[in-house]
Amino acid sequence: MIARARTVNAILEHGRLSEPVQKSELRRGDRVVVATENSVYCINVLGDSTYSVWGGWFDRQGLSPVRLSISGCTWGGSVIKHDIVAARGLRLEFGNRVVTSRICAIRVIRGDPDDQTLRPADSRELLAACYGSDPGLSLAG
């Protein structure tokens, strides 16, 4: 039996995940809305390898918005892809070691690099940004 080594790049290719959001593609002022199996996160790009994040775990801990780095994405193990912010099917790992549940949807919203005004976002607003404004969309279940 021949064992085949698998890299994160090979897994991404094989899994045909939606186009990953590369860190290099983002500019200061851009926002990335990430819907996971359990939460929704809004990530504001600050431009110095840090991000302002609110939603999900950070909301539940009363920390939103929080400024931190993004380590990258993982399948849930120790292998991490450092050059991406989000990819459907993977888990996002923040610089404080918080790892999300599996990513279901991603939306990039191009912003004005001079507008660094942050405001809290309602869960329905974040869901609408990821999934569209479907009146039948429910937060229950």
Overview of this structure, please?
The chain is of the alpha+beta class and 141 residues long. Helices cover 16% and strands 33% of the residues. The chain contains three helices and ten strands. The strands form two sheets. The chain has an eight-stranded antiparallel beta sheet. A two-stranded antiparallel ribbon has the order 1-8. A hairpin with a 3-residue loop joins strand 2 and strand 3. It is globular, with a radius of gyration of 15 Å.
With strands numbered from the N-terminus, the spatial order across the biggest sheet is 5-4-3-2-10-9-6-7
Largest sheet: 8 strands, antiparallel
Number of beta strands? 10
Using only CA atoms, what is the Rg? 15 Å
Order of helices and strands: HEEEEHEEEEEEH
- The proportion of strand residues reads 25-35%
Q: Mean pLDDT, as a whole number?
A: 79
Helix content: 10-25%
Low-confidence stretches: 137-141
Which properties best describe this structure?
3 helices; 141 residues; 8-stranded antiparallel beta sheet; alpha+beta; two-stranded antiparallel ribbon; single chain
Brief characterization of the structure:
Strands 5-4-3-2-10-9-6-7 form an eight-stranded antiparallel beta sheet. A two-stranded antiparallel ribbon has the order 1-8. The chain is α+β, with helices and mostly antiparallel strands and 141 residues long. Helices cover 16% and strands 33% of the residues.
Secondary structure blueprint with pairings:
Elements (H helix, E strand, L loop, with lengths): L7 H8 L5 E2 L8 E6 L3 E6 L5 E5 H5 L5 E3 L1 E5 L5 E2 L2 E3 L4 E4 L4 E11 L13 H9 L10
Antiparallel strand pairs: 1-8, 2-3, 2-10, 3-4, 4-5, 6-7, 6-9, 9-10
